[in-house]
Amino acid sequence: MDLYVMNCELLATCSALGYLEGDTYHKEPDCLESVKDLIRYLRHEDDTRDTRQQLGAGQILQNDLLPIITQYSQDKALFDACIRLMVNLTQPALLCFGKVPDDPTVRHHFLEVVSYLQAYKEAFANEKVFGVLSETLYNLLQLDWEQRQEEDNLLIERILLLVRNVLHVPADPYEEKNVDDDASVHDKLLWAIHMSGLDDLIKFLASAQSEQQWSMHVLEVISLMFRDQTPELLVSAGQARSSQEKQRDAQELEALRQKEQAEKRSRTLQRGTRHSRFGGSYVVQGLKSIGEKDVIYHRGLHNFKNYTHDEGKAVRRVPKRKLHARDSEGKRRSALNVRLFLREFCLDFLENCYNRLMYLVMEGLIREQAQQHDETYYLWSLSFFMAFNRGNGFRADLVSETMSIRAFHFIERNITNYYEMMLTDRKEATSWSRRMHLALKAYQELLLTVNEMDRSRDENIRQSANVIKSNIFYLMEYREIFLTLLRKFDETKQPRTFLRDLLESTHLFLRMLERFCKGRNNLVVQKKRVKSKKSKGRKNPTAAETTPEALEETWGAVAEELRAISFQLSEALTEGAVPFDAASEIPLEEQRTEAMVRVQDALLNRWGPEALGLLRAAREVWPEGDVFGSADVEPEEELELLKQILIANLPRPPPPEPGMEEEEDGELEEEELESVRVSETEFNFLDFIKRFANPNIVRPYLLLLRSYSQNSPHTNHCITRMLHRLAVDLKMDALLFQLSVFCLFNKILGDPAAAAYKELVTFAKFVLNRFFALAAKNNKAFVELLFWKSVGAVREMTEGYSKPGEGEGSKKKAKWTPEEEDELRTLYEEHRDSEVPDIVETLLPLLSNTTLTRRQVVAQLVAMGLVDSVKDLKKQRKGTRIVLWTEEQEEELQMLFEEFRDSDDVLGNILKKVTAKRSRARLVEKLLSMGLVSDRRELHKKRRRNPNAPGKSAAMRMTEEEFLADLTGGLTEEPMDGDEDEEEDEEESEGEERERRAPAARGRKSWMAERESMVEKNASLRTMVYTLRHEGMSGPLLWLQNCLNRTADDREEEGLFQPVPIVPLTEENEDAMEKKSFQRLLQKIGVRAPADEQESFWRIPAQMRPSQLRGAAEVLSPSQDALAAGAEESEQPTPGSPIQEQQQGEADSHEQRAQALRALLLARKMKQPSASAEHTDFTPVEDIDSDSAPQRSSEKKTSTKRRRVVLDSDEDEEDSPLTMDLGADGDADSDREAHSAPAKRKRQRVLIDDDEDD
User: Fold this and answer.
1) How confident is the model at residue 510 (pLDDT cuts 50, 70, 90)?
2) What are the pLDDT digits (tens) for 903-942?
3) Residues 960, 965, 969, 972, CA torsion sign
4) Nearest to residue 614, comparing CAs of 632, 594, 630, 590?
5) Is 50 exceeded by the pLDDT of residue 671?
6) Where is the composition biased (Basic residues) (predicted)?
């Protein structure tokens, strides 16, 4: 851009800066204001960056700004303003435009800005400029943290940004046509930094603890300083060449010499014997030209081997989307003095700064305190400095910060993220590919360093390497990463250098894994399986799955699995276990039942680790009450608790009503569900190698092999070794029988310098020999060369082709014996005239061979000529064929409805008896249209319920005490109907008896535990009330009773269930609410304590029903208290003695009391009650209501015994002096009850009284 097109205001502002006379700059009085104006102009420039271009064309930075900061550095305001302006002017063009523009005009502006930046970089290669910057930075760093102002910190950051921007400017390949060892502009800039001492300040910033806020800026500057360098060149700078380097150079020279000699020989053979002006013309017989005649060749015969029909044709243009990705610019060797100073910088940096700086940067990246894509600087620094350390005598302590599993995980996560972004953000796919290449290089360097540690002489370092290898070989993500990258390689987005590093990294990983496996008999690794399954809703366990025998078998498998893993769960299972649904409308406190059901479902599916993880997660969410065990529970106690959950009869939500969830055709909507199962398996190295036997993985290897002459010997060795593993170790040589591979082998064998590729030549000859040996046996082998082959195709090609229908992936054809054919013919003739809806389904159970499938039987019927086509036996979809109803069918339906209208399952019974089978939805529609029912809900299956059940969703609104009672072995809704169910079952039919046999058995088993649980709870409450009355709390108890009754009345009248706070208004009630004994009574009743600091009062929960509230209030009444006191007095082994005397003599008579208690327990077991009693949630089973007492006393004259078992915490021992500890020497009955208690057992205390009814 010329000066005469500069904006007038901009030109006037630049003129007001000052002028340069010789080496002296004379600033104008308005210099500072002019600099600020330029900053303001840059802030308001347009999309073409016109202001920036005009300032670059006017060389304002070279002629004005740099002289100002060098000569007027003492003017702090002017110096700060100039630094601000230069930071803006030198920022990368990509930041100015956002991306490389596609539009030609905007791209021209972009290139103009880049050219001005390159001119700025050349101007900055001045020791005087960097001397001023270094001195200013040094003075600022000398200030203590307390003395620094905000302007000082801003100036430090701007100087670092200015250095970063200048180093970031790309080189101009057209202007800098320098050879190796010549000084480029970048080298001059680095030398100026070194001479000014700025490199020492950068090392100080990287190592000083007080300057850690600049860690990211320092890492950017360092990575840009070493941008054009390679670790190998820096390591060897100033040192004599090693013998390995000399040998490698000699091999390269020998290969070039052989190639040159071969080309000379070929040129000698190409010279014809005749005169050069007469090349000759020849007719190529058998090779047709465009017409019908043979091709006429007008050149010498020695050139005919290179003849092709494509000669003279225009080269087809490759579409842009199919162009191969270009490699980045190659590295060059800097001047020797620059390399020497950079080598010393690397040594000091590794010794003093590397570990600390990388730690700070990693913390910033993890906490997302850095800017976007800043992790690329971290990845580059990791790979560069670890490679330098490995080549310079390798010291593990210098790179210990990045030599960890944390670094492996960080890099693996970034590789995965870059790959996903490369697929989604297609416009920036090249940039994402470049970042993924950086991450791959870092991963490769980590593996190389671990391999170097494994060869160390220090035993501790070798052990550390083994620990790291054990972790990366165990986790599936680290093993699968190379398979994924190879399978997904795309040459249009990823360059050849990426492929080279990928293959070399894969070779190193496999070599390390093979060596690791050889030293061990077995290696256990993690395995993840993603299962896709179709779900038709939640499926409750069937009766067959919950039989005692099936549960015992399930528990044996689960317990064995948990003991095998020593109750240790993986991190994935621990983090993935969520016992509650955060999005559910059900409150968190009410999801405990669902969490317990989920644990039981996991146990029924034999997912032991998942069940244990859910149990532990639920314990953290609901610690109160120790429902899921206490915090310090032992593993064996957890195992016992899991067993109780498995055999418990838990309340489950009702299944969806029949007929409502079905569509018209009777089919449910299915959805795909994916579940990831983590397990452990024994690792087999050969099986792992088999996963590389895939055409998608072999292709990248052959793609890189095409450039074998440009590859390094190590790269060619990596390719050959992998192909050797497939062809020799796996005996899958046929995988390489492909025409393009053979063309490549032919090129290698015909290469004049083939002697330099002995390994490749030997392998190519081996594969070709194997192919021609196979072609002698298989005449289709030459056709197979046209296709890439899978493992199955390779097996068929080498072992013989299978007939259609006999392949591995297809169903094997069943072999029918003559006897089976005769049997099928006989059965078909017998049933062909019977009007069965599906004759195949009729024949299948009658055949002697029970392994035959429907498809095999249908195919055999067609093959035997018994039916004409498969369509004749096609299975009809349920409920879709029959549409019209005849009069007979309507009469039958009406008769069946009248017969079963009073049964529990009207629709189910009709479906069983109806002749014309139809879908459930069609039957419902017909019954509605005939007017037999007026609502679909009349046809829903009726569930048997206890008459005392309060509502439909009572099972889902259980209190904690009811839930624990269910957990001990039975449902609260049918506590004492076991004998009545037996009498009803004897009168029912055999079919119904079979269906109800299992639930009835469960009811009988759970009856005793249910009854005892209710008695124990109410006995405990009465004891606590009795104790509190003797302590003088009759007033607070009466107040609490009134609160409960009043809340019950409100809920019955208004129907609103909300938490109600219990507010004490008198001093007596306030004192009672603060006592622990009264609070324990509130907890027993079900009143909730304050949840957090915002709540001050205890609250009656919303889920407590009016019946529960009235039952609790009845327990608090004085009559119940007196009854409890009389019962307790009759229970005492020494009647007539006071309570205090009993407490004092308890130790002396403990053994005598225990014997008496055991005798009473055994007597009670022999006398079970024969009739059930109605009771509320807080009323004991034996309590007799005042209204029904005369009637029941007339019906029952026999004596009954009461037993009350109190399960309470150890704290209650002080407040309940009347209780007696049974200890460890309980009777056989207490042992039998122990299996239904939670794993964290509490002390059991039994109160027994003998009362005789009048």
Assistant:
1) very high
2) 888 888 888 888 877 778 888 888 887 878 777 777 877 7
3) negative
4) 594
5) no
6) 528-539
Place of tokens 């001119």: 119
pLDDT, tens digit (0-9, with 9 covering 90-100), for 697-736: 999 999 999 999 889 889 999 999 999 999 999 999 999 9
DSSP 1022: H
648 vs 53: CA distance, rounded Å: 80
DSSP letter, residue 1088: B
The alpha carbon of 975 is separated from its chain's Cα centroid by a whole number of angstroms, namely: 45
Between β-strands 24-27 and 282-288, what pairing exists: parallel, antiparallel or unpaired? unpaired
Task: Report the distance separating Cα 391 and Cα 384, nearest Å.
Answer: 11
Instruction: Count the Cβ atoms, other than its own, within 10 Å of residue 1206.
Output: 24
Bridge partner residues of 533 (DSSP): 673
| Alpha-carbon separation of residue 296 from 284, 308, 312 (angstroms) | 6, 13, 15
Q: How far is CA 1170 from the centre of its chain?
A: 57
Greater confidence (1249 vs 709) lies with 709
* Distance separating alpha carbons of residues 1116 and 1119, to the nearest angstrom: 9
The identity of residue 220, as a single letter, is: E
294-297 and 282-288: which strand pairing?
antiparallel
Please state, in angstroms and rounded to a whole number, the distance separating the CA atoms of residues 980 and 289: 102
pTM, 2 dp: 0.58
Distance CA 1006, CA 985 (A): 18
By residue count, the chain amounts to 1254
How many Cβ atoms sit within 10 Å of the Cβ of residue 1074? 10
Q: Show the tokens assigned to 1163.
A: 């007597």
- Provide DSSP, 294-356: EEEE-S-GGGGGG--TTTTPPPPPPPGGGSPPPPPPPP----HHHHHHHHHHHHHHHHHTHHH
The tokens describing 1080, both together, are 């324990």
Name the helix (H) or strand (E) containing 1075. none
**Side chain identity at residue 260, one-letter code:** E
Give the amino acid at 674.
Answer: E
Cα(11)–Cα(55) distance, rounded to whole angstroms? 9
- Cβ–Cβ < 8 Å for 206, 357: yes
DSSP-assigned letters across all residues of 160-208: HHHHHHHHHSPP-TTT----TTS--HHHHHHHHHHHHTHHHHHHHHHH-
How far is Cα 385 from Cα 364, in angstroms, rounded to an integer?
Answer: 20
Structure tokens at 644: 């109780």
- C-beta separation of 505 from 494 below 8 A: no
Contact between residue 1203 and residue 1164 where contact means Cβ atoms under 8 Å apart: yes
**Dihedral (CA of 440, 444, 446, 447) sign:** positive
Dmax (CA) of the chain: 145
DSSP 646-709: HHS----PPPPPTTTS--TTS----EEEEEEEEEEEEE-HHHHHHTT-SHHHHHHHHHHHTTTT
- At 518, is the secondary structure helix, strand, or coil? helix
| Separation of alpha carbons 380 and 610, rounded Å | 40
Task: Give CA 782 to chain center in angstroms.
Answer: 47
**Both tokens assigned to 1049:** 């009345």
d(CA 13, CA 33): 9
Exposure string (b/e) for 1013-1036, b if CB count within 10 Å is 16 or more? Answer: bbbbbbbbbbbbbbbbbeeebeeb
3-state secondary structure of 253: helix
What does the buried/exposed string (b/e) look like for 622-646 if buried means 16 or more CB atoms within 10 Å of the residue's CB?
Answer: beeebbbbeeebeeebbbbbbbbbb
What distance in Å separates the CA atoms of residue 1174 and residue 1182, rounded to the nearest whole number?
Answer: 9
Residues 6 or more apart from 154 whose CB is under 8 A from it?
Answer: none
Contacts of 24-29 with CB under 8 Å at 24 or more apart are 24/71, 25/64, 25/67, 25/68, 25/71, 25/72, 27/68, 27/72, 27/78
CA–CA gap between residue 94 and residue 668 (Å, rounded): 56
Distance, in Å, from the CA atom of 1226 to the CA atom of 1217, rounded to the nearest integer, reads 20
